[in-house]
Design goal:
single chain; mainly alpha; 2 helices; about 45% helix
């Protein structure tokens, strides 16, 4: 039995750039939450914002787990 090979990258370069941009914004203290408008302090929250932004722009990002 042969194993199924993965087809390269899971996340596109465009998605990686979006996450990188949001992480920098969080570190500068300028990243705000969408609904409440509060300052984002969590690393995972910044990554989630970047990935959702990448999804909206049509980048290659895996589907949400939940």
């Amino acid at each position: 039995m042969s194993r199924k090979k993965s087809s390269g990258r899971k996340y596109s370069k465009k998605a990686a750039q979006a996450v990188k941009r949001e992480m920098h914004a969080m570190k500068r203290g300028t990243l705000k939450s969408g609904r409440s408008g509060k300052k984002v302090k969590s690393r995972t929250q910044a990554i989630a914002i970047g990935l959702s932004e990448a999804r909206r722009s049509g980048a290659k990002v895996p589907k949400k787990k939940s």
